[in-house]
Amino acid sequence: MPRGKRFLASVGGRFKSLRSSPLLSPSALLERLSERELTPTADPGRPEQVEAALDWLARAQDAAPDDGIARGYSLTWNRVYRSRGWQPSYPEATGYIVPTLYAWAAELNRPDLARRAERAAHWEIGLQLPTGAVQAGVVGQTRAPSVFNTGQVMLGWLAAYEATAGSEFADAARRAGRFLVATLDPERHDWTRGNSPLALTDATRYNSRTAWILAEAGVRLQEPEFVAAAGRHLCAVVAEHRDNGWLPRCCLNDPERPLLHTLAYAVSGLLGGGLILENDLILRAARRSAGHLADTIDPRGWMSGRFYPDWSAAVRWSCLTGEAQMADVWLRFYAHTGEPAWLDRARRVLAFIEATRNLRSRNPGLRGGIKGSWPVDGEYGGYEILSWAVKFYLDAVLRYRWATRSPTPGPPPGASLLG
């Protein structure tokens, strides 16, 4: 590269670094300074916490130019989206937010939430690729197919079909399921094709979550081929499962130190798949991983955002999305087993997450949301509020409500599509 071009590139890089500095964003700077002290809530899921999260999701949908839900909110200038504020609509997260909106609509008698869910599910149909796949990334990026995203949007279509009986949702889910079956390697029983270009193609064991959703679709839509394919993939994942519960090859970018977020995807997929397939081998694998992760919770309810294969902490920041996901997993185990320890672990983590939230900010993208990391400048979603973090928090809180008000443990009707 000529010297002049190198100089301009260097200046451009420094300008972008300066532009994205929290020093230029009062909301980002104040949020970071306010994080020095945390006071975990005594009783997670109080009405003000729930309403703030639901209001945030509503603003995220209203901020989008379509009926999708914004990927998140950037507190600082974001290099990828080249702006501060609300990010573009995100098909993956919108898809699995749909069941969350339907569930809370029923819980609170809020038909407005159900209408939002149906709008989002219809919007997703318009984005479906001719192959049946769903694109990677956000709206406006290259429309490359993504196995994982296809599964997550299929979850939304299943929920919309359950809520409305609309055949268009069942048809879209079938097309998606056929894409997933067609791209599953017939020998390795792994998705080696059709993965997002934004992720490592040989470290996608978090697709066990995709397999669980495929199994759900197979049962609900009477497609035995879907169920069989899901079972083959989940058994292949269990075959790699280590004695200490470790899940290898399970991260978007660093499989030697995987994110709690992707580990939680994998565990939830094993749990959900094991339940619907009634497979004890898969359930035992999920239990081992969930138990080892539960043992890492510190007295505050904090968990590391990344782990080493011996389950020791690899970083000093927390992935709040992953914590919410694991709370939901532990609550599902509580419903399945009735063992109180699972409930207590979920309570501690939910209390920690709520302590990190800002319910009073004047910034509509910060108020009521959930940050990618704690502290907010952590590696995962640094200085971002993430739509899927809010979704998983709401799912876990709803299960916590059901668990603490029901005289006997057990999942309520329609709960299988949450998480």
Provide structural commentary.
The chain is mainly alpha-helical. Helices cover 54% and strands 5% of the residues. It has 14 helices and seven strands. It has helices at 3-19, 26-34, 47-62, 91-108, 111-127, 147-164, 167-183, 208-220, 224-240, 260-277, 280-294, 320-337, 340-355, 387-405, and strands at residues 72-78, 83-86, 134-135, 145-146, 318-319, 373-374, 384-386. A three-stranded antiparallel β-sheet has the order 2-1-7. Strands 3-4 form a two-stranded antiparallel sheet. Strand 1 (72-78) and strand 2 (83-86) form a beta hairpin. Helix 10 (260-277) runs parallel beside helix 12 and helix 13 crosses helix 14. The longest helix is centred in the last third of the chain and has 19 residues, at 387-405. It starts with a helix and ends in a 14-residue tail after the last helix. The model is unreliable at 4-15 (pLDDT under 50).
Which structural traits does this protein have?
419 residues, mainly alpha, three-stranded antiparallel sheet, two-stranded antiparallel ribbon
Strand order of the largest sheet: 2-1-7
Task: Compute the average pLDDT.
Answer: 93
Main sheet record: 3 strands, antiparallel
Radius of gyration over C-alpha positions, nearest whole angstrom: 20 Å
Sheet-strand content, in percent, reads: 5-15%
Number of helical segments? 14
Compressed to H and E, one letter per element, the order equals: HHHEEHHEEHHHHHHEHHEEH
Distance between the termini: 49 Å
Judged by helices, strands and strand pairing, the structural class is mainly alpha
Strands, total number:
7
